[in-house]
Write a structure and sequence with these properties.
The complex is a heterodimer of chains A (269) and B (266).
Chain A lengths: L1 H19 L3 H28 L8 H22 L5 H7 L3 H5 L4 H7 L7 H17 L7 H28 L7 H15 L8 H10 L7 H7 L16 H21 L7
Chain B lengths: L1 H15 L2 H28 L8 H17 L8 H10 L2 H6 L4 H31 L10 H25 L1 H4 L3 H14 L11 H9 L7 H7 L6 H31 L6
Helix pairs in contact in B: 1-6, 2-3, 2-6, 3-6, 4-7, 6-7, 7-11, 7-12
Classes of the chains: A mainly alpha (269), B mainly alpha (266).
Keywords (chain B): Membrane, Transmembrane, Transmembrane helix
Protein name (chain B): ABC transporter permease
Pfam families (chain B): ABC2_membrane_6
């Protein structure tokens, strides 16, 4: 089932890539602008540091590290399955039916639907900032464990973001116009995690630690790498809990998706 | 004129039917408002009076940005998707055949949409922001109508920009790239991420002269009573100037595009 799904995903993704390549000029422009859109987002942080030496007690390199880790994780999730957010539209228009009648796993079809290679721009930009932050970070005493945690953080972070995207998509089986609610957790979460937890109100930080565990995307492991205390009074072992949290998120999102698909009723008429 | 009024009210009513989408949008704007407000607090904590704003004024700036995001289509999502779709599919030929002006038609529809978005997606985030944070509000009651006029002019400039973007699809076929560039400019140069007065040196000077400044920076300054008396007249002049230039460019592009239309089939 899983292999079949991955194969189907690959085929559909390649098909959409070919179709995008028909308009090469436009593709080049979107890829470039995708890179810059996200770069401008970082320019804002650089402009902030043009005026101040630290934000919430964090130096520029540290904020860049937070930015790089969450943006890369988010970019990865967005590239692979950002399209699931379109499901509400499909449900509304009744075109979701076509997914159900094909002998291919539904989720693979939805995730690969209109696969957009230009989203690579976001991932590339995140990686650039991440690598750069590793160069400018001075205060970190690197150990093997810390070095392993960086790529691990990106992968588990992408899984957590992907789970939130899937849960958001499942929610759209009921609230068909509700895609924006999911955005506030995915895009909003990404923006939140770019900054140190010390600048946010305690309730907000506790919310993303204990309710929607976005803090495990990068805050919790990244603060360990930076040699700082875990947020919201987490015990020290929690710094290594991201893979476990990601696994739980994936399981819950899968469940939400199943319930969502089961409750789908095609449009009348 | 009656025709365009009907189109305008139709635009308003049409968007009023998207209740779930509006509620979802309000939720998102509020969440982003909170995140931005906290980053601004950290920033203004380090540098009081940054960019010439007190913290309370900077916080007002945040929530104004969220309130105007949909109305002024700072990130798109206005009428342009539909117009682009019609150009791509060739349905635009039918529109051109109608005894109505294309630009005025979409202008009216967009004005109706913007009016609804201002009420539907603007009021609640503003109120939440004012309740949750110590936010600067106008002292003079006349500032409110002055602010609304500035918002209206900003909406007109926004329409003119997106109309140009949409018409470019006659030439580039797939509009995704141009739309994204326009989206990027809207987010960055309107002042939504950071007030344009905080932008450094020449970048700041250029940013404050671009049309996007009239979509958030100028209305926000009117709201914060930074532009009063002749300054207010200057603000309106800046916005109206861009509106006229861009609308005229839209007309010219429309004329050129109309000559280009090749109807498929038939």
């Amino acid at each position: 089932m899983a292999v079949e799904g991955l194969r189907a995903y690959g085929l559909i993704a390649v098909m959409w890539m070919r179709s995008t390549m028909t308009y090469r000029f436009s593709f080049a422009m979107t890829l470039l602008s995708n890179l810059t859109v996200n770069f401008f987002d970082f320019v804002v942080i650089m402009m902030m540091f043009g005026h101040v030496r630290g934000l919430g007690g964090f130096a520029f390199g540290e904020v860049a590290f937070l930015y790089g880790t969450t943006s890369t994780a988010f970019g990865l999730a967005d590239l692979v399955m950002g399209q699931v957010s379109r499901v509400g539209r499909r449900v509304r228009e009744g075109t979701f039916d076509t997914f159900l009648v094909r002998p291919v796993p539904v989720f693979a079809q939805v995730a690969a639907d209109r696969f957009a290679l230009r989203r690579l721009g976001r991932l590339m930009q995140g990686l650039l900032v991440l690598v750069w932050s590793l160069v400018v970070l001075e205060s970190v005493e690197w150990t093997v464990l810390k070095a392993v945690m960086v790529p691990l953080m990106v992968v588990t972070g992408a899984l957590i973001f992907g789970s939130v995207m899937t849960a958001g998509a499942a929610f759209q089986f009921w609230a068909q116009d509700g895609a924006e609610v999911a955005n506030s957790f995915t895009y909003g979460g990404n923006t939140l995690l770019q900054y140190p937890p010390s600048i946010f109100a305690g309730e907000l930080v506790r919310g993303v630690v204990y309710v929607v565990p976005l803090a495990f995307v990068n805050w919790v492991p990244a603060l360990y790498v930076l040699g700082r205390e875990a947020p919201a009074g987490l015990p020290s072992w929690a710094s290594f809990a991201s893979p476990l949290v990601a696994a739980v998120c994936v399981a819950l999102a899968g469940l939400a998706w199943r319930v969502g698909v089961r409750s789908y009723r095609s449009t009348g008429s | 004129m009656r025709l365009y009024w009907t189109v305008l009210t139709g635009g308003f009513r049409r968007h009023a039917t998207y209740r779930v989408a509006t509620a979802a949008g309000v939720f998102t704007n509020t969440v982003f408002g909170f995140i931005l407000a906290f980053t601004y607090m950290a920033l203004w904590d380090e540098r009081p009076r940054l960019g010439g704003y007190e913290l309370a004024e900077a916080l007002a700036f945040v929530w104004l940005g969220q309130a105007l995001l949909a109305a002024s289509s700072l990130m798109g999502g206005g009428f342009e998707d539909e117009l682009i779709e019609r150009i791509k599919s060739g349905d635009i030929a039918v529109d051109l055949y109608r005894p109505a002006d294309l630009q005025l038609w979409w202008f009216s529809a967009n004005l109706g949409r913007a009016a609804f978005q201002l009420l539907g997606r603007g009021v609640v985030p503003m109120a939440v922001g004012a309740l949750a944070f110590e936010m600067a509000l106008p002292e003079n009651p006349l500032t409110w109508p002055a602010f609304l006029l500035s918002v209206l002019l900003g909406v007109v400039v926004s329409f003119a920009v997106w109309y140009l973007v949409a018409l470019s699809v006659f030439w580039v076929l797939d509009g995704a790239g141009v739309v994204q560039v326009a989206w990027l400019s809207g987010v960055f140069f309107s002042g939504m991420l950071l007030p344009l007065t905080v932008f450094p040196g020449a970048l700041g000077e250029v940013a404050r002269m671009l049309p996007w400044a009239s979509m958030l920076q100028v209305p926000a300054d009117v709201f914060l009573e930074k532009r009063t008396g002749w300054g207010l007249v200057g603000a309106y002049g800046f916005q109206a100037g861009w509106a006229v230039v861009l609308l005229a460019a839209g007309r010219a592009l429309q004329a050129a595009a109309t000559r280009r239309v090749v109807v498929q089939g038939g």
